[in-house]
Structures are given as structure tokens and as C-alpha cells.
Design a protein that fits this description.
It contains four helices and five strands. Strands 1-2-3-5-4 form a five-stranded antiparallel β-sheet. It has one domain: HIT family, subunit A (2-Layer Sandwich), CATH 3.30.428. By secondary structure, it is of the alpha+beta class.
Length: about 140
């Protein structure tokens, strides 16, 4: 893709702060640095989002996450945890349409980063949840 900022970073047309690189994956510091060490992990092949991966492509990228996360944990000893965030499509806050995972180090409860999961379990009956699980399972098995 010619107008993709991440493709340009991979091709060295735009500089970046490289954290890791191999034949399939590139990781670099996010310029926003939500917290110190905030790193993006991207496939070198242009893939728009999670829905665009084919076959084992996602596994190649996701398999590198523990290696990079452990390196971050050792390099940033004050880090107390990490959020791994993957936004897909505009409604889910994806702003660069080249698949990427955010590795966001967490240091304190005041480090200005939060994700909230609301408990909506009372909205759905067991029968509704079972029907949904069956529908999703059926679709997953079609795509195997």
C-alpha cells in the first residue's frame, strides 16, 4: 500500500524508534507514548485489521508479542503490568488502517490510561447466551 504510514515506516521512508524487527514483524515506539515504553507491533505485510488476516498470518505476529513484552518487562523494571490493545475498524478507535497491537506498560493507577468493562450480564438470559454461543461456534467452524 503506497499511502500507509506504517508501510512507510517499514520501508524506512519515515523514521521510527525500532524496538524489534524480523522478516515478518516490526515493533517500534508509538510517538504518543501513552505511557513510557508504549510500543506498536505490526506485520510487515500490509493487513488492514484483524478481519483481513489470512491463514496463519495473525499467528506470526501474535507469536512475537510475549518476546517483546518480556523484553519490555526487563528493560522497564518499574513497570507493574501491561495492556495489549488491538483496535479494529473506525468505531473501535482504529486510526491507522494497518493492523497493529499496542503494548502499553502500566506503572501506577494514575498513569492516565484506562479500559472499563461494564457488567451487562443481567441483560441476557442463559438461553440467549447459549443461542449466541452456538451461532458463533457454527460460524467459526465454517471458517476453519
Amino acid at each position: 500500500m503506497t499511502d500507509c504510514i506504517f508501510c512507510k515506516i517499514i520501508n524506512k521512508e519515515i523514521p521510527s524508534y525500532k524496538v524489534y524487527e524480523d522478516e515478518e514483524v516490526y515493533a517500534f515506539l508509538d510517538l504518543s507514548q501513552v505511557t513510557l515504553g508504549h510500543t506498536l507491533v505490526i506485520p510487515k505485510k500490509h493487513v488492514a485489521d484483524i478481519f483481513d488476516y489470512q491463514g496463519a498470518e495473525a499467528g506470526v505476529v501474535f507469536a512475537k508479542i510475549p518476546k517483546i513484552a518480556r523484553a519490555m518487562e526487563h528493560a522497564l523494571p518499574e513497570m507493574q503490568g501491561m495492556n495489549i490493545v488491538n483496535n479494529n475498524k473506525e468505531l473501535a478507535y482504529q486510526t491507522v488502517f494497518h493492523s497493529h497491537l499496542h503494548l502499553v506498560p502500566r506503572y501506577t493507577t494514575e498513569d492516565d490510561f484506562s479500559i472499563k468493562f461494564k457488567d451487562n450480564s443481567q441483560k441476557y438470559s442463559q438461553a440467549e447466551l447459549q443461542a449466541l454461543a452456538s451461532k458463533l461456534n457454527e460460524q467459526v467452524m465454517k471458517d476453519v
